[in-house]
Amino acid sequence: MKQILQDLSFNELKDLVAQAGEKPFRATQIFEGLMHGKRISSLPVSPSLRAYLLERFEDEPVRILEKFTSADGTQKYLFAFADGNVVEGVLMSYKYGNTQCVSTQVGCRMGCKFCASTLNGLIRNLTAGEILSQILVVNREQGGTLKDRKVTNVVLMGSGEPLDNYGNVIKFLRNLSQENGICISARNVSLSTCGLVPEMYRLADEGIPLNLTISLHATTDEARKRTMPIANAYSIAEILKACSNYFKKTGRRYIFEYSLIDGENADEEHALALCALLKGKPCHVNLIRLNEVKERALSSASEKQAYRFLGVLEKNGISATLRRQMGADIGGACGQLRASYLSETQPK
Ligand code: SAH
């Protein structure tokens, strides 16, 4: 694969244009075109500069392979990278704007038992520009521009563990909020992690004011180890300490994801244990009923159980929301679409 031009910040692009012997305004032209989701071959530049770029960089690092629309309006995309790898993304519409869920890796090596993204392990990290381009092409496909964006919020909750691809993700976050780019502020970005503690500390010192989300899904280390292998490396206590540090450094409250799995973590005793764990902490809990993945044996808690669980948290003063399952009819859970695409298209 060639290099990815969308990896470059505007300043890096200016250097490249100078190296190519071109006038500085060309950098603005190229950057604007790229931020509008254009491929190199359709940038409004001279044939010689286009040839210079195409020799070194991928013409179209991310392209939309397929798009599905759910009955609830959620749109799911299947993206292809220049090397033929695919990942998925989702665009969800809310009153305040559109949130895109992007992937940070092809596959994942975290091995969570309920998740479809990790079924075939980690294939590779995505570069900063490959992560950004998922947003650029969707904004374009939705008819958005840089002034009138159709993607306003971003969640790093597609396939991959963002903190396992630390450098590329940080670069992506910095490029995402550049003033003359698509300019999505880190305040409108949520980064979800299964709890890589050392990277959570590093993140707290980056000066990027994003929303930190931690996938908890259990209230004891023993139980967490049953569904999340990462629990063998870091305890819940260590995660909570890293969260407090994040709050101390950034002043931002943090969020826990808790997927309700029948017979595993969704009973009243678990709700009470969660309250005890989080009492008094500047946090919020997002509950979601497990999206059942056909390759996985786990079942979702019922709606009734989910409301009961929510009720216990509320009664105990823990701020919590029960999220709607969006796009369940189109493979809404991480990695489901890619998994079904791979099983349809690849020899067994
Ligand atoms: N690797 C990161 C981000 C990707 S997953 C992380 O672990 O946080 C985004 C969220 O979806 C995580 O909370 C993850 O645990 C959850 N998730 C994965 N598969 C799911 C499923 N089948 N049903 C419900 N939530 C799921």
Please sum up the structure shown.
By secondary structure, this protein is of the alpha/beta class.
Characterization of the model:
- There is one protein chain.
- This protein has 348 residues and is an alpha/beta fold.
- The chain folds into two domains: 1-60, Orthogonal Bundle (DNA polymerase, domain 1), CATH 1.10.150.530; 61-345, TIM Barrel (Alpha-Beta Barrel), CATH 3.20.20.
- The protein contains eleven helices and twelve strands.
- Strand 10 (254-260), helix 9 (268-278) and strand 11 form a beta-alpha-beta unit.
- The protein is elongated, with a radius of gyration of 21 Å.
- It starts with 9 loop residues before the first helix and ends with a helix.
- The mean pLDDT is 93.
- The structure holds S-adenosyl-L-homocysteine.
Average pLDDT metric: 93
How much beta, percentage-wise? Answer: 15-25%
The CATH homologous superfamily name of the largest domain equals: Aldolase class I
C-alpha Rg (nearest Å): 21 Å
Question: SSE order in H/E notation?
Answer: HHHEEEEEEHEHEHEHHEHEHEH
Shape summary: elongated
